[in-house]
């Protein structure tokens, strides 16, 4: 196995197998963090966004497509191989007058990093969804099939899927 010659998807599939085995052996308590980075790169590639450095709190990418307008995106990904309705990681709490991002993009991956669901939700619509739950980790969105049909939720699964193997 020559890692430099492998595609990003091949590396992720190898990582997935290692991650599963470490979990089975109880070396780790939860799955690793590679999913987040891959999700950000995938969304940026598919939606033509510019990925931001870690020092930009509250958003992960921006769209500068329109002159004089910057649209901020918070991007969340979750690998869920048990076919449940996973919770995305914490998105923080709504604060009147404070708008850290304009859109949330949530992506759920199944086995082999198959994109099961991907949603784009405008900031103001997000806070009215029943699937946005208060947990000990803050506000978390449950990315269900039903959510994909709600007002203000755009299903972008078919937009992301063609780019799955193109992430570098």
Tag the structure with descriptive keywords.
alpha+beta, PvuII Endonuclease, Chain A, six-stranded mixed β-sheet, two-stranded antiparallel ribbon, 4 helices, 8 strands
Structure explained in plain terms:
This protein is an alpha+beta fold and 168 residues long. Helices cover 23% and strands 24% of the residues. It contains four helices and eight strands, in the order ααβββββαβββα. The chain has helices spanning 8-24, 34-47, 123-126, 157-160, and strands spanning 50-51, 61-63, 71-79, 103-109, 115-122, 132-135, 138-141, 153-155. A hairpin with a 7-residue loop joins β2 (61-63) and β3. The mean pLDDT is 88.
Top CATH class = Alpha Beta
The main β sheet shows up as:
6 strands, mixed
Q: Give Rg in angstroms.
A: 16 Å
CATH architecture call: 3-Layer(aba) Sandwich
Percentage beta strand: 15-25%
- Give the N-terminus to C-terminus distance in angstroms: 18 Å
Coarse morphology: globular
Reading the helices and strands in chain order gives: HHEEEEEHEEEH
Please list the strands of the largest sheet in the order they lie side by side: 1-2-3-4-5-8
Number of domains: 1
Secondary structure class reads: alpha+beta
């Amino acid at each position: 196995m020559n890692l430099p010659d492998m595609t990003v998807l091949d590396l992720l599939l190898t990582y997935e197998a290692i991650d599963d085995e470490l979990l089975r052996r109880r070396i780790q308590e939860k799955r690793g963090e590679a999913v987040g980075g891959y999700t950000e790169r995938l969304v940026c590639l598919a939606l033509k966004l510019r990925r931001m450095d870690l020092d930009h709190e509250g958003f992960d990418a921006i769209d500068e497509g329109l002159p004089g307008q910057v649209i901020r995106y918070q991007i969340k990904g979750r690998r869920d191989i048990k076919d449940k309705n996973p919770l995305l990681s914490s998105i923080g709490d709504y604060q009147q007058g404070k708008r850290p991002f304009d859109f949330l993009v949530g992506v759920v991956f199944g086995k082999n990093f198959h994109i099961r669901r991907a949603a784009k939700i405008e900031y103001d619509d997000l806070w009215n969804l029943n699937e946005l739950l208060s947990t000990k980790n803050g506000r978390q969105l449950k990315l269900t099939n039903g959510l994909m049909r709600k007002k203000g939720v755009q299903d972008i699964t078919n937009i992301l899927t063609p780019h799955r193997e193109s992430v570098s």
